[in-house]
Design goal:
3-stranded antiparallel beta sheet; 3 strands; mainly alpha; 155 residues; 60% helix
Amino acid sequence: LALLEGLRLRAKQSAEAADALVLEVQQRLEAQRQLADAAMHDSTTALPRFTAHAAGLQDRFVEAQGAHGLILVDMDAFSSINDRYGLESGDAVLRRCAQRLCAIPVPGLRAFRYGGDGFMLHLQDSDLDSLVRAAELVRGALAQPLSIYGPSAPL
């Protein structure tokens, strides 16, 4: 009888150890998924990181029948926002800019985060005229005053 009780105890301990191991593996897989997502997407704006997607875009360029365009957006004097209002305000401005860029009504336009205060926009199946029109829409969207915590100010 004591032998049977000992076996039951060992079986229970083994089952608990197996459950703990399964939980640890699940946690590690989730951590790996989060790391992979962090490498692919910018944590401030939630936009895809251009550097993480550049190889895929290059493949699209090579395989594509139509033309592609890239628009580089660099916000002048952005560091003055961080200096004057703090990093939290600067991050809020970046998030708002990302939202504006994603809302531009151009088919095939995809926004990426590109560096500290930069964005890269990819326009698929575009010609020069459509690329220029898209760039003007970008300029117009970002030229609108922006209010984060107080009065509006132009970007």
